[in-house]
Amino acid sequence: FIVLLPGCWLACPNGPADAGTTQRVVTSRFSGLAIDGFDPVAYFVNRRPVRGLAEYEVWQKGVVWCFQNQGNRAAFIAHPEIYGPRFGGYDPVGVARGVTFAGNPHLFVIFRERLYLFGLESNRDAFIADPARFLKMASARWPILREDLAQ
Question: What is the DSSP annotation of 89-106?
Answer without folding.
Answer: GB-HHHHHTT---BPEEE
